[in-house]
Fold these 2 entries.
Entry 1:
Amino acid sequence: MNVARTVRLMFTAGAVEATTHANLPAVRADGAHRGETATVERLTCDDPARPTAHRDHVSFPLADVVDLPGEADDEVDVEGVCRNGPYLWVVGSRSAKRREVKPSHSDAKAATRLASVSAEPSRRVLARIALADPVPAERTPEGASSAALGRGGLVELLAEGEHLRPFLDLTGKENGFDVEGIAVHGEAGQERVHLGLRGPVLRGWAVLLQLKPRAGTDGELVLASRGGHRCAKTFLDLDGLGIRACVCTERTCRCSPGRRWTSTARVRAYRLAGRRSPGHCRRGPPRRPAQRARPVPRGRRRPRRRTGGAALR
């Protein structure tokens, strides 16, 4: 892969001291601005057509516009951002966390820390942030309002099903439940949200969730039901990889897989296409994935690859 060019991201001195510049799990480029992370970090580019640098850094805490789970100073661990219409959608990893063992720890202390797993409720965030020129706001003059998924949300819903329930208490680095990709499409108020799971990978199959968050009566988001189900699951054969990022439309979904903690598989990009969006019930192979493969020497046949997809509610 060749690097066409690089773009500088210029943060304030305070952000550099807080290592914000070194902790960028997700970035969204939109016109002349770039935003991401547990707060929304906005950088303005010098040339929207061909930017060479993003500067004029401004930080917007998410807690100023939506109610976040957990304590005010807890890590939100935002892993994905997506712009759709007047909203910037953000999602946290929702993964549990096991305490880290350091070389200086004694055997007894190491064993104690390895036994400690926290649920990290602050990471269980799915929110839409209304943008006004383009500053995050509780409500814009056009009527768009910021909101987050309330209690009794996604994790509680998945705990009622058989596929992901055993993995909700595991950490993301141990094939536990770990959200990293988000894609949103549809008109404002009628959006479909796709969440790509880095984990778990079920016997080599990655999981893509489809939700329909809607504004509730109390100002929070609630998951709308379709056919009696509030969450659709699509299972994808990505050679044992999880989903790191995804971009979805009404008919097509492109996934960028990510390795699990101990995986050594090569990373490719896949395209899942069909008459229906990935959340509908369907079984069978998708169209050939768009992928980057190493050149095959002359005289040798390219090995056939097995790809497939299945969807359940």
Entry 2:
Amino acid sequence: MSSPESPDPVEILRSVAQDVRDPLTGISVADSGMLSDMRMEDDVLCMRLSVTEDHREPMVRSLVNALGRAVTESGWNGPIECSVAPGVTSPPEAATPSAPAPGNAIPSTTAPPRPNPDAAARQPLPNNAPRADSHQPRPIPGVGHVLAVASGKGGVGKSTVAVQLAMALKDLGSRVGLLDLDFYGPSIPTMMGIRQKQTVSPQKRILPATAHGLACVSLGLMLDDGKPLVWRGGMIAKMVEQLLDDVDWGQLDYLVIDLPPGTGDAQLTLAQQARLSGSVVVSTPQSLALKDAERGLEMFRGLDVPVLGLVENMAWYPLPDGSRDYVFGQGGTVELAERSGVPVLARIPMDAALRLAGDQGDPGIARDGSAFEAFNQLAKAVVETLHPPA
């Protein structure tokens, strides 16, 4: 039993549950009511996680892992047990953390099913089995690989990374498209120097604008300049579906998608509708940004989207004497990568050429800066991950 001076494990759980979000809704498991029956029993911290049939096995595993890790990091070093309520579509062992700390394993047990004459008709489907009531991710016609560039929070340079990654892939000889799904801050038109509005073919298909050798589509090319976007989640989901279904991309080797920051409707709809080859999560080395990056990483894992790796942006500021000023800290991105089992694909220094490239709408300006080689490294790492040598 914990001593009177020790934090109450149940209160720790209640607190950290506010930061663990359901990948289907973006709402914390505390606010959504998914987490219940939090108690101490024989010195074991117990909890119950209620899920629906739409929560796939990786989502359940990710949620349970996140809860266990958050409780441990907040001071509880005893055993933890998480039971998954009826309706989960995964086997019980799927919710066991992959690498728990000693003494902190989370054995997952499912509650006994209630007697129900219709139970046989509602047995869990095998992993990845198609469901009549759910959309299966599908390829985008004419597109070889779909890459999502994401960040847990805004202001970390995600759109800059998306643009420069697309340019670097093009420089490797690939046919590349750039899709701007950052609806609340569509910066791709400015960064690519595109002035004309998005056009539509006689067949009512959206035609990408061509700029700097990239095929580009953005809601920013469909709105009046300066007009704010005030949409509810359902409208965002509908627009994502339209931009996935109604664009004539021609033939592309890669489609780079610039997602909005955070973990919301655009990310969920994209993962459910499009067959993603992988995601790249962008963060600065700052602790606050890395916490949000970890949530984004776990979101993709929960949605069964491969995480290709992390990109550390604004990693340092190069000084005139050749030394480096680590403005946002050092080492945090590597620690997150090691903890999460993903690589750091590239570390991008702060570079005035990147600012000029974005402000002037000419991404090629970045070729004159110190970050250019880092983006080449990023593109090569992505290609090698998607096309490993035989």
